[in-house]
Design brief:
Elements (H helix, E strand, L loop, with lengths): L2 H28 L6 E5 L10 E5 H7 L5 E4 L9 E6 L4 E5 L3 H8 L5
Antiparallel strand pairs: 1-2, 3-5, 4-5
Helix pairs in contact: 1-3
Length: 112
């Protein structure tokens, strides 16, 4: 598999996890539980990862303000396509590198 194909597959995996987390956020809003923290699924590129993370709702909203940012478990970054830009309590935030990884993040952003 070429590096471009691998980067695209990683990006698609991450986009799927982010869409699941968006649905969790919507459910929290529907049930009036959007204060405090929410459990999210690690948005890393590993399709087998099911690690759950606790994130403050307001932090998740701030992070999601940039389509290139993803919430992942510590140590789950893939340096060939992303960079850790922030460390939270029990999670990291990665930013997709410019080029295809960032373009794919913007293209598949459920908030666009």
């Amino acid at each position: 598999m070429s590096d471009d194909e691998r980067a695209r597959r990683v990006g698609l995996n991450e986009a799927i996890f982010r869409q699941v987390n968006e649905q969790i956020r919507d459910l929290n809003r529907d049930f009036g539980t959007e204060e405090g923290t929410m459990a999210v699924i690690c948005e890393c590129g590993n399709s087998d990862c099911t690690e759950r993370l606790e994130v403050l709702v307001q932090e998740y909203e701030r992070i999601r303000g940039d389509a290139r940012h993803y919430v992942i478990a510590k140590g789950h970054e893939i340096p060939s396509v992303e960079t850790v830009v922030e460390q939270g309590e029990g999670y990291d935030v990665v930013q997709k590198d410019e080029g295809e990884p960032a373009e794919l993040s913007r293209e598949l952003n459920p908030r666009s």
